[in-house]
Amino acid sequence: MHSVGPNTDSNNQQQLNVQGVVGSVYPSPHGQYHSLKGRKLFFLLFVSCVTLVIVSLLVGGSVLYFNYYRSQQSSSSNSTQNQDNLKDSAGKVVINDNRFCSSSIYQPEGRILDLIRNSSPAVVTIVVKDPDVSLGEYTNPESRETVSGGTGFFISEDGLLITNQHVVCGASARDIIVLTNEDKTYSVSSVEVEPSQDIAILRVNNNGNKFPYLKFAHPDARVVVGQEVIAIGNPFGANPGSVTRGIISGIGRDIVAGSRCGTDGQLIRYSYEGLIQTDAAINSGNSGGPLLNMNGEVIGVNSAGILVANNIGYAIPHTTVLRILDRYLKNNNKIISPYLGIVHRMIDSSVASAYGLPVGAYVVRVMPSSPAAKADIRPGDIITKLGGYKIDFSLASTLTLYFEPGQKTTVEVYRIPENGKLEDGRYLTLEITVGKKDN
């Protein structure tokens, strides 16, 4: 309020000064009249011009501001849309320029993608911890050193899980951790193994949850060379949910495989019969994962790969796994294996030809009161047939695949005489009742 007064006085003073100037320029009353009239016209023209300029500036500025505002809004909207829609897998905004990018977005789809989406949740990572005991108390397995691991998959919603025997590596249930593809951790309540076929069956503590699971193909479903397959696993223990695709390269393969177990890294060798060969990549860590047909059914359990070769992997046929699973379920969740009661070493074709012996299982020792002892199998005998099946690769595998505990059958042996002359040996056919062994 106090500032208004001086401003008003100042304006008035300025007006007075102007009038004084005008009066002094035009001293004649008549000339002053015409001069004032001309001055009024000039003043009106000046005001009109100034007003026109101001209006033009206002209108032009408004138009420019409106266009600028619209462009900013459009730019902001496009920027937001680009940030929302144009991000790569790492979350970084990527370029969207039709000079370099397609104008349409490809949406992957198809049977294989559906198969993988439906099957992958049932596949898990298995971690085996060092069974150390600290200060007399059993420590949390997650805090201990990892000594082994691989892949497995659920076959029931309540937590029944299949993997390889060499994955669990002789560990007890309390040493094993199961990690799902949702990064959830579960403990294991029981472990059952069938070493002769490299199969382990685990019971996972479900904590009230229901697990996604896979189904095996029908027992009579044929596996044929050339059919397409999918393998899912965790190669090298750092790539869970990895998928590889290939075909069946061969069936009925026999191999000798080795695996290192425990902190001492002891190499254990096994002989396996009748495996599926595939060119779908099976790397270290894939062991125990499913080999699927194109219907999403399990036709094999991935077991072994040849490190010095490309695209040669092996899987245990689903029919073998189903036979072991059947024994497990019939024996109160215990794997009961057929048993002869001998310690033996295989004689292959090269050794047999060098010493003039038949191919078969050379008996090193016979357990007292065992089925073999009751059948009169003796140390030094060479088992050449079991129930009509030739023993030319693996006695343990043949026994597990084709015989059940309690089954009566025959065994053919080549017996070397007491004089030690190999050429005087003879073949004998003995009757035997297959025993059972709790693994």
Would you give the CATH topology of the largest domain? Thrombin, subunit H
Rounded to the nearest angstrom, the radius of gyration is 44 Å
User: In percent, how much strand structure appears in the residues?
Assistant: 25-35%
Per CATH, the class of the largest domain reads Mainly Beta
Q: From the helix content, strand content and strand pairing, which structural class follows? A: alpha+beta
Show unreliable segments.
Answer: 1-34, 77-84, 133-138
**Strand runs, count:** 22
Q: Please name the CATH architecture of the largest domain.
A: Beta Barrel
Specify the overall morphology.
elongated
Q: Please trace the helix and strand order, writing H or E for each element.
A: HHHEEEEEHEEEEEEEEEHEEHEHEEHEEE
Record the strand order, biggest sheet: 1-4-5-8-7-6
Outline the structure in words:
By secondary structure, the chain is an alpha+beta fold. It has two domains: 112-330, Thrombin, subunit H (Beta Barrel); 336-438, PDZ domain (Pdz3 Domain, Roll), CATH 2.30.42. It contains eight helices and 22 strands. It has helices at residues 4-25, 29-85, 111-119, 165-168, 318-330, 349-355, 371-374, 395-402, and strands spanning 123-129, 133-134, 137-138, 146-154, 160-163, 176-179, 185-194, 199-204, 228-233, 242-261, 266-278, 290-292, 298-305, 313-317, 336-339, 342-347, 360-366, 382-386, 389-390, 408-415, 426-433, 435-438. The strands form five sheets. A six-stranded antiparallel beta barrel has the order 1-4-5-8-7-6. The protein starts with a helix and ends with a strand.
